[in-house]
Design a protein that fits this description.
Layout lengths: L21 H6 L1 H10 L1 H20 L10 H16 L7 E2 L16 H11 L19 H11 L3 E5 L2 H13 L4 E5 L5 E2 L3 E2 H7 L3 E5 L7 H7 L4 E7 L15 H10 L4 E4 L19 H7 L3 E5 L10 E5 L1 H9 L2 H4 L4 H13 L6 H4 L1 H6 L3 H19 L3 E10 L11 E10 L5 H13 L5 E2 L1 E3 L2 E5 L6 H5 L2 H8 L1
Parallel strand pairs: 1-13, 3-6, 3-7, 7-8, 8-9
Antiparallel strand pairs: 2-10, 4-5, 9-10, 11-12, 12-15, 14-15
Helix pairs in contact: 2-3, 3-4, 5-14, 6-14, 7-12, 17-20
Length: 481
Amino acid sequence: MICPPPSPPTLPAARPQDLPAVDRLLRQPPVAALVQQHGHSLVADQARGLLDGLRRQALDGSLPPAAVQPDSLAQALADRVAARLAPRLRPVLNLTGTVVHTNLGRALLADSALAHLLAVMTGPNNLEYDLHSGGRGDRDSVVEELLCTLTGAEAATVVNNNAAAVLLTIAALAGGGREVIVSRGELVEIGGAFRMPDVMASAGARMVEVGTTNRTHARDYAQAITPQTALLMKVHTSNYMVQGFTAAVDEAELVGIAQAHGLPLATDLGAGSLVDLAQWGLPREPLPQEKIAAGCDVVTFSGDKLLGGPQAGLLVGRRAAIERIRRCPLKRALRMGKLPLAALEATLMLYLRPERLAQDLPTLRLLTRPAEAIRAQAQALQPLLAAALAPRFGVAVVDLLGQIGSGSLPVDRLPSAGLAIAPAQKKAAGRALDGLATALRGLPLPVIGRIHDDRLLLDLRCLDDSAAFTAQLPALQAALA
């Protein structure tokens, strides 16, 4: 009879007194090097946290003896310092199928915008200094001429996002309890519980709803005008669509009503593309220049959606209305900082060369990627990912339908392709997919997909660089081991 070898003796758990004091730990050579690199305050703070946690483990008898060895303590402390210094805001791979993803930073900045940011942020700049006169300047002047050229407006101003642009417009033109007339079918709510009725109230205006959810006529606006009316407003329903028995009044018709009563007309376009997307086979969005040509006094739209720039709220229109908006006290509170303003200027410059736009503007480049090219990329990646996930998961190339995102064109879908990952075992498939999604998010460059119909889908439309994905497959394999 062959007897099994004896089990190695179990070492007793480490005791609290086996742990060094903070000062003693800091004097160890590897830790002293950490202090030299990062400073005493940070390393000492993390050392206290580390030792407190280990002491609790020692008190309940669960601290392995190896954990109190000098090398182990030094490495654990180095890991804590690195984790503390790791940024919370990190780049990710957006494989969700939504190109302009609100939760993933929306539009990507063009190379020229990044270069301009670096050039003007590494030293003083003329943010509010007029180089011609040598006197104080206006930061709006950085982009006003560009916006007027691109939209045909008489004047323009900018604030930190489009919600602020709408709020400021209403406050400046209808604050103090005056009335703003808007169709019931346009009382939009966007992400983060931003509701048009709440914006009206916050701006100090009184909202007057006209028409019905699905049908509003010109007479509804005209009949609602009173001596207290200060503004007529149109809101583009960019994140939903009412279909069927519908009627709406466009800006060209509303301009006549507004002018007949001496009132301004404002329209909010939300996403606000500056070019007709139909020329690239994409669904069409209303353009600010069309609304200006129709006679609108103020047009508001975003900078970081279809325009492809930084977060910004852009206001263009008639000089008199824009000047009233500039004089509103809220304007200073909502103004843009120098970083997004520099990025916006460089982004708008790209529109002066429209023939190159699909090459130079990342958002448009991703939106216009041919589905065939995306499928070819998926076919090249499939065997690599399948090998990394075998045998627990299978990987297949699939055709997908993505979307533009951020409330833009809610019904239309973008033909795309990607990889569908399914567990080999149907039992506990949901748990397996959640674990895989967690492992993908835990990679050095997190990968964000979406779970649908018992599969984890990775839409490759936004994967410009396959190498960034494949380089992480060994780490993914290790995380799932």
